[in-house]
User: Fold Amidase domain-containing protein from Ficus carica.
Amino acid sequence: MWKPIQLAKANISSHPRAWIAVGIGVAGIVILSETHRRRRRRNKPIAKEDFGAFVERFELLPFPQPPPPAARLALAGLTFAVSDSFEVKEYLTGFGNRDWKSTHEPAEKTAVVVTALLKNGAKCVGRTVMDELAFGITGENVHYGTPVNPQVPSCIPGGSSSGSAVAVAAGLVDFALGTDTTGCVRIPASFCGVIGFRPSHGAISTIGVLPNSQSLDTVGFFSRDPSVLHRVGHVLLKLNSVEPRRKRCLVFADDLFQVSKIPIHRTVHIISKVIESLSGYQAPKHINLGKHIASNVPTLKGFCDAPTKLQNGTFTLKGLSSAMLSLQRYEFQSNHEEWIKSVKPKLGPDVAERVNATIETTPENIKSLYKVRNEVRASLHSLLKDDGILVVPTTADPPLNLCTKKKFSFEFLDRILALTSIASMSGCCQVTIPVGKHNDSPISVSLISFHGADKFLLDTVLDMYSCLQEQVSIASNSLPLPDTNGNLDVSELLKEKGNAAFKGKQWNKAVNYYSEAIKSNGMNATYYSNRAAAYLELGCFQQAEEDCSKALELDKKNVKAYLRRGTARESLLRYKEAVQDFKHAIVLEPYNKVANLAEKRLRKLTKWLTEKEGRREGASDRLTERGDELTVGDFDLGGAKNGWEKRDRGRVMAMQGLRRRGTSQRSIVFVSGDGGLLPVSSSVSMRTK
Assistant:
C-alpha cells in the first residue's frame, strides 16, 4: 500500500506546478476560513476584559478614616472611575485621543472633584474610555476600541462618557464620573441601563477637567444604586443633609412622549402609578413643552428652519438643539483650534467630520446663542417654579446596533439631541432613571428640575426609585400592550376630564369619563380608584368598593384605593373590613392622617358595638330626642341593604338602622360624619322582622 503513495509523491515531486497548485489551494482555504471567522466575530461581539471600559488601571487611595468616635467618611468603601478628561496628578490625560496624550505633559494637579471624592473615603481605580475630545454620542473610539454594553453587547453604549457608564453597568465600580455637554452622561446611562445625573450648570467644579464647551460642560456621575448616587451628589454638590420636605408636582411633556419610539405604557404610565402610590406628590400636570418654549423663548426663532412651524414641539426643540450645537462649536473652536491645526491629530471618521466642520465654521449670532440660553432657563423656571419636575424621554430611540448603517443618520442625531438640549441649554439638572427593557434593550425616563434644585431632584430619585422598580416589574410581567404611542393620551385625556368634572362636583359626569377611560385602558388602577371616589360622592358604596378592589388587584400599593374602600365599607357598616383597609394604608404610609384617624375611630366603635352586643338581651338604654324620652330594648344590627344615604357638609354619610323587635315606630341609626360614628335617634319607620 505504501508504493502507490510513493509513486504519487514521486509524480508530484517531478511536477513543480502541482506543488504550486496545492499551495494556492491551501492558502485559499486558510484565507476563506479567516474571513469567515472575522465575520462571525464582527456579527457577534466578544466581551473584552473589563468590557473594554478602561483606558488604564491605577489606584488612588482614599484619605484615612478619622479616629472614633468621629463618623465614617461619607463614601467609605466605595470605588469609582473617571473618564479620560479628568486630570490626575503625574498621569497623562488622553482626552480619548492618542495624539492628545503624546503632545501634553502629565497633570500637575488632580481635578477638584476627584480630590473631593478621595477626601470622603472613595477609592479611584482607573480611567475610562470616552469619545474623542468629548465630541460624540455613540461611545465608539478608534484608538481604544468601543466599550461593550453589558446590557446589550450588540449595541452601542452611548457617549461620550461610554467607559464610565459601562464600568458601572458591569459592576466594576460603585460609581463613575463623566462629563455631560450635549447628553454625554444621560445618553450612555440610558443605553446601559444605569442611573445618570447631570447637575445644574456650574454647581460642580470643572477645575482640572478638560473642556469641550464651558457654557454646556458639567461633571456628571453614574451609579446602579440610588443611595450611592445620593451620597456622591451630596459630596460633590456640598449639600446640606437636612432640608424641609416639600410637595412635588410632576409635569409630563406629552408632545415629547408622542414622538418617542418607546411605548408610553413602559414610561408615562409607570411614573403615573408611582405618583399615585406615594405621599407628597401633587396631581400630575400635562404640557406641550414645544409650545411652551416657543412662546417663552422669542430669540429661538432665528435658529428654526421653519418659523411658521415653531408651534410644533419637534421643530421647536430641533431649533433649540441647533442653537446648542452652534454654541458648542463656537466654544470648542476657541478652546482647541490652535492644537488641532498644529498637530493635525488622527481622529475617527465621524469625530473628524464634526471637528473639521467646527474649525472651518465662522461664528455668527454669538450674542443670540447666550440669549437663547438665558431665555430657556427662565422659561423652565417659570414652568417648574419651586416644586415642579419635568418628565421627558431621555432618548427617542433605543440604542442602535453596532453594525447598523443608520447609527449616524441625521434623523437619529436630531431626535436624540432635541431631547438632550433641554437641560443642556437651560442649565437645569436632569437625572436618567432606567425603567427596564423593551425589545431586549434598556429604556429610561428623565426627570428635570429647575437650575439649582439638585438636592430636590436627588431626594426625589431616592424617594421614588424602589416603588418605580416595583412598577417596572409589574409592567414587564403584565400582558403585552400595543407598541404605539398614537393617541397616547386618549385614556389620560378622559381621566383628566373626569378629574375636572369631579372638582366641579359633577359626580355623574366624572363617573362617565372614568368609565370611558377604563374602556380605553382597563389596566390602569388610577381610573378605577378615581371612579370609586366619584361613586362615594354619589353614595354608591357597593360600586365604590368593587372599583377599589379592582384597583388593588392592579396595584397592591395604591394607598388611595385602600382609603376609599375603607370609607365605602365603613358606610356599609362592615367595620372590621374597613379597619383592615385603613391599617393597610397605614403600613404603606405610616403618617397618613386620614388613615390613622379613621382606624382609631373605628377601633373605638367596634369596641363599643361589641360591648352593646354582649348586653343586648334584656338591655335597656335611654335616648332623648327633642325632649322626648325613648326607651329602647333588644335591638338587632340591621343589614346594609336597609340603610339610606344622607349628604352633609360636602361629604356622603350613611345612616343605618338598628331594628327593634316588634316595633316599626322608632329605630337607632349611626351617622358617619366628620365627628365620627355616633348613635343617634330617629323617627323613621322601619320594617320589623
